Amino acid sequence: MIEGKLVNLRARETGDLDRMYRWINDGEVTRFLEMRYPISLAAEEAWIKSQVSTPASYADVRFAIETKDGVHIGGINFNEVSPEDRRARLGITIGETAYWSRGYGTDAMLTFVRFGFEEMNLHRIELTVHERNERARACYRKCGFAEEARMRQSRYVRGEYVDVMVMGILREEWEARQ
Amino acid sequence: MIEGKLVNLRAPEMGDLERNARWINDREVTQYLSMRYELSMAAEEAWMRDVTAKPLSYDRPFFAIETKDGEHIGNTNLFAVVPEDRKAKLGIMIGEKSCWSKGYGSDALRTLLRFAFDEMNLNRVELDVFAFNERAIAAYRKCGFVEEGRRRQALYRGGAYHDVLVMSVLRGELRP
Questions:
Q1: Contact yes or no for A124 and B152 at CB 8 A
Q2: Which of A136, A149, B59, B149 has the largest count of CB atoms under 10 Å?
Q3: What pTM value is reported for the model?
Q4: Burial A85-105 (b: 16+ CB within 10 A, else e)
Q5: Which ipTM did the prediction report?
């Protein structure tokens, strides 16, 4: 278990299925995610089975986010990890909407970014975020991420093309904040 | 065959194998590509068999670039095509170095972009280019690509970190 101030990060478990199934079919949650189509319980179960049967590794890091009371509220992961460039792409979901805007996401980010730099020895962590996802953008800025690019009309959501921001944080920037 | 002014784009063929293997192991060529490791002829052949076995399609728009004399000088493709967003990423390699800086790459780009917008009905074509690849960046700009930002130190090559530029061209922005 990786300990933050408000949350802990732990491996995903089979018991997370019902919650993850609920979140991934919640339009409010998926509005800003890549996910577009509803997912069956069977498909979600198959996915979780594959996740829990292989340990997380450098190329595939994913954790469940829990409050200090042990309430599972979301997930966080790295993908597209490039060992030569020491770079990874971060994804995060707070699926329990009751826990939005209360600092849990920010704490999960800070805890996970620390893990990326201090345990995985990364040089750069990056992410993409919809321009309309103001809450997430503010959170990422607070965590030290800089806006580096605006990909114009990169996603089509709810009847319109929206820009997607690229944000990144370098190791030296992280260290300067400690 | 898709006709440009200086080049044509055609489906890749097994006969391209030796040239592709030569280019992909030429460090002068691959310094600008994501390719880092040497590739065996067998691995290149397996990849070519896969590419040539199925017809090109929305998911697999991969082309060989030929001069009007029929000389194969490089390849270009779209990948990561997302139909809902109507976007794709673009990759291009002019492997024949004697053909660099002669307008072939720019013409291949324009020809592929016209195909992307006018036939595949895409809205956005994007690419990542290493910040030190100035010749490519100039060619992309000339075709209408806009620099959208800079992923700082996203690439490690030759003992140093380098920035990677994000560029895109939207439907209607293609320059003739």
A1: yes
A2: A149
A3: 0.94
A4: bbbbbbebbbbbeebbeeebb
A5: 0.91
